[in-house]
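Input sequence (272 aa), recorded before submission:
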Amino acid sequence: MLFWEKPDWFDARRRREQLEDHVRRSRMARFGIRKMAAEAKHEAVREHFDRIAGKYDFMNSLLSLGIQHVWKRTAIRMLALKPGQRILDVCGGTGDLALGAAQQVGSSGQVVVYDINWAMLTTGRPKAVPRGLEDRIVWVQGDAERISFPDDYFDAAMVGFGIRNVTHLEQAFREMMRVLKPGGKLLCLEFSRPTNPLFRQVYDFYSFSVMPALGQLLAGSAQSYACLPETIRMFPLPEELAQRLREIGCERVIYRPMTNGIAVAHLGWKRR
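Predicted structure, token format:
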């Protein structure tokens, strides 16, 4: 996609097309505005993150003007983690959320970064060393839709800016719920639609003009950084996502918009 093209924000009907029931029925999925056979999306996501893994952290900080770090710290505080707990970071990528969680659970705790993309894991792993957290974090390559851990294993499961890239969104959430202990917490930090219409116009211009141009200049791929805002516009809005979480068994689901709704953190509990 050329960086000056701008798709509209999806309406409710089209947002539902990103959900599991439609994907299974149609056997088609989207990654950005690209439409493909559902079974092909894993490979498309892998290729995308292979291209950008080396510049992922730098570009995220640059393009968010550093605000992403505030969002992630806020989300970790919402979990209220305790020393000794066991935490799963699904679609954990280069491990920013995991690093924050590892500081909270202490030397007796453990954080597992779980991601399908090996290039992202190998990029993130060295970040734990200067922080003295390498013994608290385990890096595991795996599919979010088939988590390779037993039932009732983790005290908390979190996903940050990654769930919209999976093929079957609800299946990934069900897997996170499965591996949680009764009473465990599920956290989803994800991008969303800005709430103020005027701010949204500025955000759209930045997303579809500035971000891809910088992606081409600094990371060699305008397409990769046009894909990000495309996927955001297709993702369920906060209350829609909260309802999906309730339907898969999350209790007391709450959500917190940040920076005029650019990012939203959802928190729910597994039934005891």
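Checked by second reader. The mean pLDDT is 92.
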